Amino acid sequence: MMRKVSEIMIKDYITIDSLWGIRRIQDIAEETGVECFPVTDNGRIIGVLTRNDLIKAHPNRIALDAMSGAVKYIEHDESIWKAKEALDAKDTDMLLVTRENEVVGVITRQALNYELGKHVDLLTCLNKSDYIYYKAVELLRQGSEISIVFFDVNNFGYINKELGHAIGDKILKEIALLLKENTPDEAYLCRYGGDEFVLLIACCAEDCKAFAEKLIRTIKDHEFSQNTTVNVSAGIAGGRRRGSRKTDISKTVSDLINIASLASTRAKMETNNLVLGFCGFIDEIAI
Amino acid sequence: MSKSIHSAKKAEITMRLAEFEMPPMQDALIVGRRAPIGPEAARRMVDILSPGQYEIIKVDHPVIEALVVRKALFNMLPHEKLVALLLDEGEKVANEPTIVKAQVNIVLQVSKSIDL
Q1: Is the pLDDT of residue A286 over 80?
Q2: In CATH, what number is assigned to the domain containing residue A140?
Q3: Residue of chain B minimizing CA distance to A22
Q4: A134 and A230: one domain?
Q5: Per-residue model confidence (pLDDT) at position B12
Q6: What is the value of pTM for the model shown?
Q7: Domain segments of chain B: what residues?
Q8: Residue B72: is its pLDDT beyond 60?
Q9: Is A83 helix (H, G, I), strand (E, B) or coil?
Q10: Residue A52 belongs to a domain with what CATH number?
Q11: Which residues of A touch B35 (CB under 8 A)?
């Protein structure tokens, strides 16, 4: 479900020697279109020469005196979101991808941004579900308790048919904005599918019930385009792992989202539009 | 009447011979941030010409990237004082694309009195 670093890494990367002149490297960059190079000294990677370095450095300088990027590594099976966090935190434009302590490829900021663009919903500007999977797995690994709130717009098909898809899109944008504005910093929001949104919160399902109720009410009270009445239903599922159990965390997250999704369908029948689907030790879930 | 045209090319050569300074950089180099030779290239150059005699000091300065200083000077003057002195004087003449060569003469004056 989660896109991994190994799927987008550049395997045939070009390395440059630390004693090569900048003019020579600029020629290589122009010929190949590559903007970022690992720098080697006696076959060992010692730094990274970025596009900015190539622009700023005197053409007579050697790579060793022009490179600014530090050598940063990431494991091949890490998520692309982890790679983004690593690039943002470490002030570099390239990560070296390792498998069993051996460099097997590189990942550049340019390639990563291109890939991440595919994981942002163009209509609402929210991340797509991949990001929520990543954050949920990360929180569970850290031993945190998590809850998934699955929001589903009631009768959205009817809105589309009665008012047209353009108005339907506008309403989705307004819902996304309302959710975004009312989501705390420590929670993560995504557009899961057509008229579905998922909120990931690092707290137990019981605790986030009141929060989900508030969001349902906020949307209900909002004046939407063309005075359309819009309601959403929400299903909640959450809990924590038992420390000793070895389970596939990605599958656990997937199961949790599924439970919340099914609960949101049941919630459409409830007067308060909210159903708590699961709360407990989530590595015991069996769907 | 026939005309003859004479043309000649001559080259005048002036030579100036002097002993190659060893090392060619004397006591210190002040390397600008956009100088054609960076501190690592300078270090490798001096390490080949005068192994182990110079130290590279990278500095946090808007114009100067590093100082390459003859280690023997640190026997006479504390590290931080010499660096501060070189930066203080160096920034008055150096700019980003330049490398300034500095000659530093240190004369210690000692005056002591002893009980007889």
Answers
A1: no
A2: 3.30.70.270
A3: B36
A4: yes
A5: 93
A6: 0.71
A7: 28-102
A8: yes
A9: helix
A10: 3.10.580.10
A11: 58, 61
